[in-house]
Specification:
Oligomer: single chain
Structural class: alpha+beta
Shape: globular
Order of helices and strands: EEHEHHEE
Number of helices: 3
Distance between the termini: 29 Å
């Protein structure tokens, strides 16, 4: 069974599949910065037309769900996110 669950401070996060994929990628590569283009290709793939603003929107929603730990996802100006 593919369990796609995440917790923060003992509370389960209610994440969409894309939010989970973003969080998992950041958690698997702490400190590494990912460009919006890389995230679009890796998370959304080539078969869906989305813009880099899609990444920004999903990161914003993910940060909101992380609450006090929102700063775990950092904006790297001129690059993207880590």
């Amino acid at each position: 069974v593919d369990m796609r669950l995440a917790w923060i401070s003992g509370d389960e996060l209610d994440l969409t599949p894309k939010e989970f994929d973003l969080l998992a990628l950041f958690a698997q590569h702490p400190g590494r910065a990912f460009s919006r283009d890389y995230l679009l290709e890796r998370i959304w793939g080539n078969d869906v037309y989305v813009t880099d603003r899609t990444v920004d929107t999903h990161v914003q929603r993910l940060r909101k769900k992380l609450g006090d730990d929102a700063d775990l996802i950092r904006t790297v100006w001129g690059i993207g996110y880590r």
